[in-house]
Amino acid sequence: MKIIRLAPDESGNIDWPLLSASRKSVVTVGAFDGVHRGHRAVVKRTVALAKQFDALSVVIMFEPRPAFVHGYAKAHGNDELPADGSVADTDQLTGVGQRLRALNELGVDYVIIVKYTLAFADKSFRFFLGQLVGRLGMRTLVLGKDASMGAGRAGTIDKIETLALATGMFELVVVDDEGRGRTRVPQPIVPTMPATRGPVSDPRAAMPKAERRAWSKATNAREVRDWSSTNVRFLLANGDIEDANDILGDLHGVEGTVVHGEERGRQLGFPTANVAEPVDGYLPVDGVYAGWLVDLGPAADYDERVERSKREASDGISHQYDGGGIEARLAMTSPLRWPAAISIGTKPTFNDQSGRHERVLEAYALTGDDSDWLDLYGHRVRVEFEQFIRPQIEFDGPDALKAELADNVRTVHDLLG
């Protein structure tokens, strides 16, 4: 898989590269946040059609997420996002690195990462598609059934289909990527920690029709695809890991660098890997979870590889994707993967005396040897979530907390081995 990074000029124009003088391309477009089963259905169809037509499969991936860019603009007088990256997208399910790994596994030929700006968004869908035909040699465009693009999202499926038929310059293939149909999600999504021990089920599933209608009205819920990033975000914000993972088609995970914490876990006999903020990915609601801790190697190596990729893929020049061997580390049989008891929260048992109330992500790895302390300081790790165990609660003291932690570890062992 080859990667190209493109940034529009101040007017929103992009200097699209010429991918091939002899081969056409099959293209799909989107943010692909989470690369869930709906996204995978569209990408798989793109790859299959490209092979059928001896064409190049091309994914145009927007970064940052369009919803984040427009949300920031709405709250800041229609300003563009700061170019220094100082404003983090905490609602993003997966960062660029995670999305690239997934697209590489799906066999994509090219991923073109386009920096999404307001000026670029203001271009009409007709102009945008004309550029793809003229420069990328697009013969086929593959989209999900409710996709839209261009200024004001005016480029609906019906209008794109009309354009394709009228010009004969490309064909449109629409993929039914809705999964189980439609559902409704509150706006905004407010994380709600379950009050009881897990596992957690979809809070909407048990509602009678009348109750669901009243709930939808009270929460200003809007209709979305069941297989959608928005629905995954809602499920994670309610601790429903299993339903979120079902939509993702994989385990939801976040990534970051291990740093020194207060070392309270070590004092209690449960030394944890503390992951620095901001993490790469969407943190589920506060609580204790069963999941996995994966060592991805020194963070400095990862950061250097990312920066090299940005340099090599800039200005429309393609370079070969380099995962740095992370795929092997992520394998379920990897010796660098351990079952883990994962905690997200503000440490209510100690925060009054410590004066620290920030949200913390930490994971205690079940290594199989109680004396085997994992020194992962300065390493990039991936924390994956399998199931919600319990809410964050305040204990009477260290002894009560220690007993509960031991019980949590037994639960993880029973679930994951």
Automatic annotation (TrEMBL):
<protein>
    <submittedName>
        <fullName>Bifunctional riboflavin kinase/FMN adenylyltransferase</fullName>
    </submittedName>
</protein>
<dbReference type="GO" id="GO:0005524">
    <property type="term" value="F:ATP binding"/>
</dbReference>
<keyword id="KW-0067">ATP-binding</keyword>
<dbReference type="InterPro" id="IPR023465">
    <property type="entry name" value="Riboflavin_kinase_dom_sf"/>
</dbReference>
<keyword id="KW-0288">FMN</keyword>
<dbReference type="InterPro" id="IPR015865">
    <property type="entry name" value="Riboflavin_kinase_bac/euk"/>
</dbReference>
<feature type="region of interest" description="Disordered">
    <location>
        <begin position="183"/>
        <end position="215"/>
    </location>
</feature>
<dbReference type="InterPro" id="IPR015864">
    <property type="entry name" value="FAD_synthase"/>
</dbReference>
<dbReference type="GO" id="GO:0009231">
    <property type="term" value="P:riboflavin biosynthetic process"/>
</dbReference>
<keyword id="KW-0547">Nucleotide-binding</keyword>
<dbReference type="GO" id="GO:0003919">
    <property type="term" value="F:FMN adenylyltransferase activity"/>
</dbReference>
<dbReference type="InterPro" id="IPR014729">
    <property type="entry name" value="Rossmann-like_a/b/a_fold"/>
</dbReference>
<keyword id="KW-0285">Flavoprotein</keyword>
<comment type="pathway">
    <text>Cofactor biosynthesis; FAD biosynthesis; FAD from FMN: step 1/1.</text>
</comment>
<keyword id="KW-0548">Nucleotidyltransferase</keyword>
<keyword id="KW-0808">Transferase</keyword>
<keyword id="KW-0418">Kinase</keyword>
<feature type="domain" description="Riboflavin kinase">
    <location>
        <begin position="247"/>
        <end position="417"/>
    </location>
</feature>
<dbReference type="Pfam" id="PF06574">
    <property type="entry name" value="FAD_syn"/>
</dbReference>
<dbReference type="GO" id="GO:0008531">
    <property type="term" value="F:riboflavin kinase activity"/>
</dbReference>
<dbReference type="InterPro" id="IPR023468">
    <property type="entry name" value="Riboflavin_kinase"/>
</dbReference>
<keyword id="KW-0274">FAD</keyword>
<dbReference type="Pfam" id="PF01687">
    <property type="entry name" value="Flavokinase"/>
</dbReference>
<dbReference type="GO" id="GO:0006747">
    <property type="term" value="P:FAD biosynthetic process"/>
</dbReference>
<dbReference type="GO" id="GO:0009398">
    <property type="term" value="P:FMN biosynthetic process"/>
</dbReference>
<comment type="similarity">
    <text>Belongs to the RibF family.</text>
</comment>
